[in-house]
């Protein structure tokens, strides 16, 4: 392993170890909010723009994942239809609300919004929309990043019901390239995925105690086809991506 790869692994591992402690309380709060929604047959939506949208894809139809999750996948706010224009969209007011309306979000639902910078228009508008209709908002964001660049603007952390501070530095990347002034090795996706999967595992554990854990199996596992088919049939009416 080279010095650079070692530095990246060391940095990421140390951050995860620290977050295991600092986020224990907020993660428990998030799990409780999601558990309450699940017991009421509500849905948990996951939304992010740019690279943050990968958290929504991570939990969608996922082996070992909860079937009542719904990814909010809007092409113009992701990367595959044009990375540059997606950066414009995520900073433009008024675009997210009509996008979210197609998902039929309801009072008592939950939306997890991932935004590392925490100041762009799209994630904040998504939070406002959810709260307007009576849904709970969980934010995965960097307080240090949003505090450094807010300049008086609203932050996602200011409008969420539960804030999961990923502890990342402004700019995301964590490994210095000596003599260049550049940094490489972004970690927000790895950290965000770890946070959300840990919370969902806790929720599934609690639901399993009453025999109500709706968890997908890997398609290659015995019995997966039957189990997954039942879950898809149940949750497809409120998940346009199934």
From TrEMBL:
<dbReference type="InterPro" id="IPR001347">
    <property type="entry name" value="SIS_dom"/>
</dbReference>
<protein>
    <submittedName>
        <fullName>Putative phosphosugar-binding protein</fullName>
    </submittedName>
</protein>
<dbReference type="GO" id="GO:1901135">
    <property type="term" value="P:carbohydrate derivative metabolic process"/>
</dbReference>
<dbReference type="InterPro" id="IPR046348">
    <property type="entry name" value="SIS_dom_sf"/>
</dbReference>
<dbReference type="GO" id="GO:0097367">
    <property type="term" value="F:carbohydrate derivative binding"/>
</dbReference>
<dbReference type="InterPro" id="IPR050099">
    <property type="entry name" value="SIS_GmhA/DiaA_subfam"/>
</dbReference>
<dbReference type="InterPro" id="IPR035472">
    <property type="entry name" value="RpiR-like_SIS"/>
</dbReference>
<dbReference type="Pfam" id="PF13580">
    <property type="entry name" value="SIS_2"/>
</dbReference>
<feature type="domain" description="SIS">
    <location>
        <begin position="30"/>
        <end position="209"/>
    </location>
</feature>
